[in-house]
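A quick aside before the break. I want you to see a complete sequence-to-structure record at least once, exactly as it would be stored in a machine-readable document. Don't worry about memorizing anything.
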Amino acid sequence: MYNLLIKELKLGVNPFFYFMPFLTGALMLIPGWLYFLVILYFCFLTVPNMFAGYKTQNDLIFSSMMPVTKKDIVKARVSVIVILEVMHIVVAMIYGVITLRLYPNLKYFFFAPSFGFWGLCFVMLAIFNIIFIIMYYKTAYKYGAAAIVSITAAILFAGGAEWLGIQNSFVFDLFKGTSADNLAIQLSILITGIVIFAIFTVIAYHIANKRFEKVEI
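That is the input. The structure line, written in tokens, reads:
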């Protein structure tokens, strides 16, 4: 499993995608921007291009020729997705801290880069993962429909969250009002988001594993 993961990281992923979090994360420095887009670029750019590369390189056939199980193939691929997602969020969080220091008195129309916001980002990626991973492993080859549906779901979540943050007084207070400065509340939202991300991704992995077992390579 370890060697398969190293193979994925070195051969399966274009080195540019390791640089992407630093490139897209810099957009956090734009004051008052729609920061959900920073994380969504992972869904827009990295995933479709990465899986297009897998398809072009016949990576599925190559992996199946190795002395590994189908379960390990799925686990390694899902692990790579998670590693890149966490990279995108962690780097964006660092840029977010810089933004808060640069513009301490900025009034945010959209969500500010608070701990609570990053919790929402984890939930957004959880939704993306459970849809994309499950749909993709129906064939383990065709990624287009899975990407479209999962990206659409992530956008709808981000848009819905932003709309509630503007229109709903409770959500507004939670992220932009008095509760925005309550560290305990913000950390609880972040932790909840991480837990949801972990649960959804594990569920997606197990369902994908069962689906992939039925795929004839």
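Two observations worth writing down. The chain is about 75% helix and 0% strand. The chain has a mean pLDDT of 90. We'll return to this after the break.
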